[in-house]
Amino acid sequence: MAAQTGKRYLCPKCGAEFIVTRGGEGELRCGDTPLELKQK
Question: For the chain, how big is the Rg over CA atoms in Å?
């Protein structure tokens, strides 16, 4: 999954929210937990 610039991602484990400022290839993680694209 490519990280998309301007999109918000959420850690389902701890609830941390991230905004991507520079997109690119690779998987976003919070510790060992993959992030999920936040739905509106």
Answer: 9
Distance CA(30)–CA(9), nearest Å, equals: 10
Bridge partners of 23? none
> Residue 9's CB: how many other CB atoms inside 10 A?
20
> Residue 1: what pLDDT?
66
pLDDT tens digit sequence for 13-37: 999 999 999 999 989 999 999 999 9
Detail the DSSP E strand segments found in the chain: 8-10, 17-19, 29-30, 33-34, 36-37
Global pTM value:
0.80
